[in-house]
Amino acid sequence: MTELDKFVPALVLQHLTTAEAEYLKEVFDRFGGYPDLEQIWSLMDEPWVELSCDPLNMDERVTAYYQHPVWLLNGLFVERHELSLENRRQFTHWIVNQAPLRVADFGGGFGGLARFIGEALPNAQVEVVDPHPHPAAIALAANTPNVRFVPELTGEYDILIATDVFEHVPDPIGLTAKTAEHLRVGGQYLIANCFAPVILCHLPQLFHFNTSWDAVMQAMGLQPEEKVLYGRSYRRKGEINLPAAREKGECSRRVYPLISWLPRGKARAGQLLMQIFCH
Question: Which of 20, 51, 95, 175 sits 20 to 30 Å CA-CA off 242?
Answer without folding.
Answer: 95
